[in-house]
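At this stage, I wrote out one protein, both as residues and as discrete backbone shape codes, and that material follows here.
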Amino acid sequence: MSRICEISGKRPTVAHSITRRGKAKREGGVGKKTTGIHKRWQYPNLHKVTLEIGGQELTFRVAASHLNKLYELKERARGMDLSGLSKKQLKARLLKLL
């Protein structure tokens, strides 16, 4: 299962962890020296949210910053005729509304 938000498309990004040693100049030292740079990953804050839409339970993986969009989507789907669709088709149709 990929770590991608289904609404915003947020995904893992590469960052660097920089290791330094020494005393900062503002604290009376000669300055910090870099002793190592390591690659690391930053992951989005994903939540699994289950909503009942059109009589079916749908599970979305959504970043915490976009949870409100998901509930807004549920409100938009309230007046739509979604009967006879599979879960996959239903999810695709709802995500087109955004």
Summary: The domain at 13-42 is CATH 2.20.150.30 (putative 5-dehydro-2- deoxygluconokinase like fold). The beta strands are 13-21, 33-42, 46-53, 56-63. The helical segments are 67-76, 87-96.
